[in-house]
Amino acid sequence: MPVTDVQHDLDALTLTITADFAAPLDRVWQVYADPRQLERVWGPPGYPATFVDHEMAPGGRMNYFMTSPEGENYYAYWVITTVDEPGGFTFEDGFALDETFAPNPEMPVASNDYAFAEADGGTRATFVGTYASAEALQKVLDMGVVEGSTLAINQIDDLLAS
Hints:
Family: Belongs to the AHA1 family.
CATH topology: Alpha-D-Glucose-1,6-Bisphosphate, Chain A, domain 4
CATH superfamily: START domain
Mean pLDDT: 96
CATH class: Alpha Beta
Low-confidence stretches: none
Distance between the termini: 16 Å
Protein name: SRPBCC domain-containing protein
Domain Activator of Hsp90 ATPase homologue 1/2-like C-terminal: 23-160
Helix content: 25-40%
Number of strands: 8
Organism: Nocardioides alpinus
CATH architecture: 2-Layer Sandwich
Number of helices: 5
Number of domains: 1
Pfam families: AHSA1
């Protein structure tokens, strides 16, 4: 399993997930740069993602939804702030109200920093989400973000092997 460490820090307002992949840096980058590949791993098993928009550029927006086994859609978005191909990217990650992808003001927004670096013949990925408050971080922790993210990230190995 690629996920090697998960830490959350309510004082620093961060959730950090570290994963190691037995694949070159450029290959791991492609998982995020290609919406069809990203759809195969974004979201836990049983909740496939569909990226409606995918613009991996500063100011770009990625709108997507995940579909539950019961057919219910959950909408969300990313607003890309920086891109350092293949070393990573930063983005704002928020929940959306519906298929309009308007931000849901009732839900937390995370500032995410996804960094990729060569390590031990493969790639180490460090995923850091920073929240506006301890309450916002606790809300996503209570929603199962650690479990869901771990399951999603662990799917990447199968994609890299294909």
